[in-house]
Design goal:
Elements (H helix, E strand, L loop, with lengths): L2 E7 L8 H16 L7 E7 L11 E10 L5 H16 L9 E10 L8
Parallel strand pairs: 1-2, 3-4
Antiparallel strand pairs: 1-3
Helix pairs in contact: 1-2
Keywords: Isomerase
Organism: Streptomyces brevispora
Protein name: Isomerase
Length: about 120
């Protein structure tokens, strides 16, 4: 815990600094939710095809999902989510003609969550 998943459009292969983002994300999360950096686990999932409303093929999506053990206030989760979107923007280089849609959410893990 925290379990972090980053879904991103294949369009961003050359411009999204995955490792730099994770390297900055883990200390941010650890500080904001009072956990250890070593507890942060991030998976990056490249998405081959995305669609944004009726937009042309030039759109790209990045969505970050952070799952935490229950107990954080809605205010802390909202602040974390806002901070993650800001951080994310700094790790993707702008590309001419490519509209970027960034989003994040912070949620509680299901009570059935177990780790080893």
């Amino acid at each position: 815990m925290p379990q972090i998943t980053v879904d991103y459009s294949a369009h961003l292969d050359e411009t999204f600094d995955h490792h730099g983002f994770a390297g900055a994300l883990h200390p941010l999360i650890a500080e904001m939710v009072t956990t250890k950096i070593a507890a942060c686990k991030t998976r990056f999932r490249r998405v081959e095809e995305t669609a944004v409303a009726d937009a042309p093929d030039g759109d790209a999506i990045v969505h970050v999902e952070i799952a935490l053990l229950a107990g954080r206030t809605p205010e802390i989760k909202a602040r974390l989510t806002e901070s993650v979107v800001e951080l994310l923007a700094g790790h993707i280089e702008p590309t001419d003609g490519l509209t970027l849609h960034l989003s994040a959410e912070t949620r509680d893990l299901d009570p059935s969550y177990r780790k080893n």
